[in-house]
Amino acid sequence: MKVIVVGAGILGASVARSLAMAGERVHLLDQWGPGTGTTATTFAWVNANRKLDPDYFRLNVAGMEEHAKLAHELGGPQAYFPTGSVHCADSRNESWLVSSVERLRSLDYPAHWVEREDAVRIAGDIRIPDSITAMAHFPNEGYVLPERLLSNLLADARRHGAEISVGEVVAVHDDPGGSRVVLAGGETRTADRVVLATGRWTDDLATRSGLDIPMMTDIRRGSPIVGLLGYVTSPRVDLRCVVHTPSLNLRPAAHGRTVVQALNLNSGVDPKAPLSADCEIARAIVQRFSRLMTERNPSPEIEPRVAIRSMPADGQTIAGYASERSRVYCLVTHSGITLAPLLGRLAAAEIVNDHTQDLLQAFRPTRFAGVRRSELNITRATRLGEQ
Ligand SMILES: Cc1cc2nc3c(=O)[nH]c(=O)nc-3n(C[C@H](O)[C@H](O)[C@H](O)COP(=O)(O)OP(=O)(O)OC[C@H]3O[C@@H](n4cnc5c(N)ncnc54)[C@H](O)[C@@H]3O)c2cc1C
Question: 266 CB less than 6 Å from ligand 1?
């Protein structure tokens, strides 16, 4: 079978690899090249921490387990770090953290209260402010280095025969005998199946192709899909896991960097305005970062990046054919770093063998059929620990 995968972010790369491993002829296309979408600007915390919907929680827990399995199979430099995470709450957030820990424990999701010294031992070189009143450790969580994971997945996909190239798809034709994609230059390519893994651009491409995949597309100041990440150069920081504090979330990154985000500053981010290390938000983030570090880490440099979420309109994963007779398989999600290896494998199994995957049943795109967009419930990932 010939499969065209449109979009070479973490989802497209994962499904392309799984399809190629199954022996299919795979062509992975990206308008600007691999890893140029949301996968380049993500906090990349692997977790099921605030996934309140039971099906979505189950999917994310399975996503966490899949990372561990994949790490054993996949070559290349280490990309997945099962380090756990530490959450620190102050008096304003404490009851929220307490209810989270209780809820997660009742679901057999490992969660422990820790003392200040334990938190520092687990998290590394951070100074926990005196205002912190409760600390929890989630030992099964972790993080990935997204550019490394992407590059390892692509290398493995190529090894299994996948062709990867640059090309913008302007429309997909979902014909009964097969599918066709039309490229920006007018060239047409045919395939037995097409996978749309086009992240935040999916709504637009789907509409142009006569399909209905509702996403949040409102990219403006104050929109829940607009975020900001700071890439802080801090070679002397010994951060050992994902850390959430009321002022800043932190995760280790490659090349002596730390990725940070201040969720409560997101609403001030204007996605159209140029960002510099000197802008107000970047300076506020550096200040918060410095307060959390020990004296050994003076004057960190920051590269701020606007980060746009790929968010289906109801906040949950979309995985499946656009309609019962369709040959276009849609794969779009927030929490795509946690979910990509799992979704890639399950989607490939559905495409190759027509094996319906139980974990994906609640996430079919057909759930939107007949629902007005204004009726959809939008989630907001703007609180401590919500990604
Ligand atoms: C601030 C922020 C924090 C996040 N934190 C986390 C987290 O902690 N944990 C977690 O699990 N997830 C997190 N996420 C979500 C996660 O990063 C995304 O879900 C994931 O990266 C999406 O990957 P993707 O492959 O679907 O999309 P993308 O990486 O955007 O890839 C889509 C690709 O499709 C290509 N494309 C689009 N249209 C076309 C076209 N017409 N023709 C050809 N190519 C096309 C684009 O160029 C792009 O490369 C976060 C996201 C943000 C923004």
Answer: no
